[in-house]
Amino acid sequence: MFLLYGLITTLIMERIECDILAIVHRLWIDGRRKTGGLDMVLDYWLDQGSRICIIEHPLEDARSSFITIKEKGQLDRTLFKGRITSFTGPLQWLGEAFFNIKYAIFNIKGHPLLATSDLLNNAVGIFLPGKFRRFYFHCVDYSANRFGNFFLNIIYKILLQLSFRKASLIGVVSSRTRQEMIKQGARPDLIFHLPNSPLYRGFDYNFDYSALKIPFSILYSSTKVIDRYCYKEAVEAVRLVKKSFPQVILRIVGKTDSDNAYLAELKEMIKEHDLEGNVEFLGYLEKDNLNKVLRQSQIGLALHAQELAFYYHYADPLKVREYAAFGLPTVTDNNSSVADDVITAQSGIVANGITEIAQEIVHLFKDSSFYNQLSQNARQWAKNNDKITLLDKLSSVLEVKIAEQKKVSVLYIVSYYGFGPLNYLQQFLKETDKAEIATISLPPIRLVDKRLVIKSSAHEADGKEISYTLDWPFSLPAVFVYPAHYILAFWVFYKVFTQLRKNHFDICIAEPCFNTIFSWLLRAFKFVTFTIFVNGDIIPERKFGNDPYYIHQYSGQAGLLRWAASLFHQVLVKVQMLFRHIGYNSDLVWCITDKIAQWDREHGLTCKKLMVEKASFVDYSQVERNTKIQKDFNALGYIGRLNAGAGIDLLISTLPLLVEKVPNIKIHFIGGSDPTVAKYKKLAQEKGVSEHVVFYGFIPDLEDAFSILAKTVLGMALYDPTDENGSSYTQSGKLRDYLKAGLPIIATRSGSDIISDLEKFNAGVLVDYNPQDIVDKIFTILSSLDEYTQLQQGVLRLARDLDYHDGIIRAWQQITSEFTKKI
């Protein structure tokens, strides 16, 4: 009856055209598909432009089968979902095989490539050889006693022999499987070794992650914490390692079910051996978060239960390949096929028994030259088995249809070149060769020696710099500076953009909102295809105290001038809101905090697509270098705009009290225009602390700015903690700059989103918004070298958490995904 039902079902389904028909057996975990080696192959072909039809049958008896069409840039389309047969076990497999054959005959047009990952699905290729132009069998494992049943094992071997004869190519994941396939009669020239390497696009195997490593850390990654992965043995090995290295930490990645009896026993064992501070459960991690943990870990561990050696003997564990890509030497046993490759590549150590495993881990921790050599070998081994390179070769052999590929081109328009997220996106794209990126910098007009100056620049994708300076020999009242910039910036942008060699870009990213006018115009005139607005702050609607935010040079004025300044401030707010609406017309809006996105929603701003992703990144290696620079304990640092909202008035007003306790203290101020510098020099003079302040003004070269900042002892971020302060919505640039300079931070208890991280990582000290508390906290830190050292360690921990690789990767993946949908 079920055969008749299956026949009728296939006859009423639509007929489809596809480049590839894939048939897999699918395992589900907590309602999610568990993907495997063939899925990586299909993802690669999908990304290359192939149209794929996938038939998925469940490994569990009670689940439905699926038929899905996948195309690049399109949502997956489900053609069928339902039970193929009411039978279970071997009869279910027979019904599925019959269904696959019928579907291929009646519903698949043309002659696509057939790709399967299970002998049970090979019936289509065996019995319909003329239907497919190529038949690729991806053999993920092998077992001499696959089913534990004599008759089923006979059928298994017959299907294997028939597959050898009919398949155009057989992909194997391990060297042991390859040897066994040849032994069973497969032609060596038809076997393609495709190990379970992770699929990393544009991965830099030469990148050195040593600066990010957590000392004496061991990573053990799996899908689930269960007995087959020998976690108890791993914990016992850690107990032995702890005798030599008390700081050792085992980081366990894997699902931890509350009803897992083995996990409960494991935790009891950890408690019994007093290892609670040496074992960390991270739970199941998605790819991005797992990669972050891989970057931070020193050694990879992979163990396999001896009683399952018949299964693991031919297996190629993905975890070991992931470890290698990030330079982790692996300590493993001999129960899986990957052990042979680890020995050959000298990318780790094969050890047997808990004592030997512990000894080898201790050896790696003690001998840095030995560790570094294995780490280098691991990266080279991973590079030699790069999945993209292997898939390119596989596709060539199978003559898979490949769409023409080209590198994405990006234009990034900013106010200041060299700041995040631009600098880290540029660095990431250069490291991974994922895109060509050109930049245009349009800084605001500056009043310099009674002249109006805009120093603009552009950088070609190859690094060539283009400069243009608008220098007018007259000045303007501060109230007219903003309108002048809004007008003159069009001319400056035209002069710079027309000098770029490239005149069309795939993606244009603009920040802040005023610069989105240019991305909007470029899209309107077809110079760019896809536009992005990086939204890093809100519009300050109020006045700080009684001071207008945009023209705070007029603070403290009275009468008609004061009224005019306040009115003009409100006009500028309206103009900024107009710019923001233009920004929200972009194809993608990248808000750097949830609070900014919420503020915009409350003010009626809607967009086509919203992405919320942090943009306050640092380069950990830079932070580590700067923490080692000798600090002047009589120097405090400040970088950023000079105004009351950033705490400058409070900071200078606090100085007289601080000088009483630290007589030689000085504050180094980096930033500000000539008028604001003059204003705060006057305030310092009024407070009697002129000798205790140094104003540098705006420093165009960031390296020069950081060379000054890195020699100070603390970074000051005394934001006005009221909700009206626009800085409370954003990810403060100055806090990120202090981290980059290797400085612990003194910050008020409210303000930027990153404030909570200062407490979490002990990377700074929070103060109340009053002079006495600020002075007390600064004096305490400067009086205790031990406390300052602990804060510096916290800076390193926070920098490791904010390292740009993870956030930029997530952001770039979302950007390219949305761009692909549009094109």
Automatic annotation (TrEMBL):
GO terms for molecular function: glycosyltransferase activity. CDD domains: GT4_PimA-like. Pfam families: Glycos_transf_1. Residues 231-381, 625-789 form the Glycosyl transferase family domain. Keywords: Glycosyltransferase, Transferase. The keyword Glycosyltransferase applies. PANTHER family: GLYCOSYLTRANSFERASE, TEICHURONIC ACID BIOSYNTHESIS GLYCOSYLTRANSFERASE TUAH-RELATED. This is Glycosyl transferase family 1 domain-containing protein. The lineage of its organism: Bacteria, Katanobacteria.
